[in-house]
Known about the structure:
The structure is a homodimer.
Chain A: E1 10-12, H1 18-25, E2 30-31, E3 33-39, E4 42-48, E5 52-55, E6 60-66, H2 72-77, E7 80-85, H3 91-97, E8 110-112, E9 118-120, E10 125-137, E11 140-152, E12 159-161, E13 164-170, H4 174-177, H5 195-216, H6 221-232, H7 238-245, H8 249-261, E14 265-267, E15 273-275, H9 277-297, H10 303-321
Antiparallel strand pairs in A: 2-12, 3-4, 3-7, 5-6, 6-11, 7-10, 8-9, 10-11, 12-13, 14-15
Family (chains A, B): Belongs to the non-flavoprotein flavin reductase family.
Keywords (chains A, B): Oxidoreductase
GO molecular function (chains A, B): FMN binding; riboflavin reductase (NADPH) activity
Amino acid sequence: MNERVYQPIEAGDPADDLRMFRRCLGQFGTGVAIITTRSDGQNAGVTVNSVASVSLEPPLVLWSISRQSRSFGAFQDAPGFAINILSKDQIELSRHFSSSAVHKFTGVPSRNGHHDIPLLDGAVAHIECSQEAAYDGGDHVIMIGRVSRVSRYSGDPLLFVQGRYVVAADHPDVDATTAANGTSAPPQIAVDSALIPLLFEAHYALSAKFDEHRRAEGLSRTVARILAILQDSPGLTAHEVARKTYIGIRDAEDALAELCLKDQVVRVGNGDYTLTQAGRERREAIKRRWLDFQSEEMSGISQGELNAASSALSKLLANASCESAL
Amino acid sequence: MNERVYQPIEAGDPADDLRMFRRCLGQFGTGVAIITTRSDGQNAGVTVNSVASVSLEPPLVLWSISRQSRSFGAFQDAPGFAINILSKDQIELSRHFSSSAVHKFTGVPSRNGHHDIPLLDGAVAHIECSQEAAYDGGDHVIMIGRVSRVSRYSGDPLLFVQGRYVVAADHPDVDATTAANGTSAPPQIAVDSALIPLLFEAHYALSAKFDEHRRAEGLSRTVARILAILQDSPGLTAHEVARKTYIGIRDAEDALAELCLKDQVVRVGNGDYTLTQAGRERREAIKRRWLDFQSEEMSGISQGELNAASSALSKLLANASCESAL
């Protein structure tokens, strides 16, 4: 927490403002999972972020399905389901299973688990369940699964936080205390060649300061990205905006609606979104501000040092980008 | 997904191996929340990561409480509860409310919400609920809350993934597509002074390659960190190991138990954990491997370039670490 007064950005009764309610819920980060099942000889699958552990003994987990979902009937009738926890490389699969596509499984590599329920390749875990109970949850139904088998795979989980698809990063404080930990945090190295640890530290410090500036301007990452994308590519559908910005489709739609209310974005003839003059001006102001900020951060570094540093980092980048010999 | 064969690291019936079950569940990332309530004039609070959204209309959320929890009775009797979604600066508060401390609220800044339930300062959201239903969930009870008021605050949410406390980072692919987005991703800048974007790119590439190496060695981040910490500070309790490594207490206990089984860690007289000779050797091998790896990555960079780059990055770091003028 910083030292500014601790005051909400927004607050109220969720019944009065569903978008605000969703933004508040989005503060609780989650993984992303595709729940699969098989019923009447047909596969069904939906993307959710409402998975939660429940019990160790007996082993129980839960998730919620919308009563409006086209797959609702399939999940009600099926003897069980599988939770496929997605890896960071599966954003497109996440979008695909949250779309209204009819043949969702075509071309999606999978194997069959219990009850012939498909287990999707590339997931970082499969949690196979028999249906234990289904509880009322308003416009959703809470599905309780008894876990019969679990499988864990290598890889980094995909995360969904504040409406964006993200990945996990070490906590910024971790480096000071476990600098020599042999993880992705800067590993210890002889002082005269400490370029890599220095690079990690500088990255953390700059990221934090960029974020502080953005926040001080009252600018959310979501809105900043949407303005940038619409300036570069005017005339996009909400789905295209979501895809290009790594934002969830519902969050993109919410943000676009808010930007339309502020007259910074407008829907043109075919329904596509584009920046208004006011939107373009806001975007230009943000951009100028960031460029000024960067110049300021680089003050005191001579041109010679800049050139040498750029050359060294370019080589590091080229080395690191090489196909690993593993 | 990389091109190696897609095979599980571990798999089986959760009833046969609770630690494996927990590791599989840990693949689904979550936020961290402290649930607070007030019953019989007493405050109660517990840390959980089992929060999930349920319904928009009516607005419902859920979380689960262990039947063994000392606060179980308080939550059963209370008219409602508040979900305090923690920010990245609240790891110690998370640990505090998952401990067995008796006076958990002493010295913890809060204000009173509905039903005089404490809302903790520094949270990134408060979700105030009246108790709607409580469902059986094996060794836990699933609490359903009807949301009466939400508040959202500035800040980055704390996340818990694969047993570790982490923060969100932009998806690694985001930079290529939205390079000019004015967020923490590298902002666009004139080419002759592109040091900062280059620094961000090099950081991402090196992080990814470090991780790939770690994974190829079958080494989890959790185990790597525990070995490092126990080498630096022999003789620690499980709580001390957890705190110093940013690992959850239960996950630290699980990993220490596994390391004891492998004879790499041993409990000494007073119960503290320390490395065995085999543990020290493994740690040394990991460290050597990382140092070799770094030297390799820096090959082709002259000493002059290294020095200039280190100097430039040091200045960047010093600038970025300055108290912001905001």
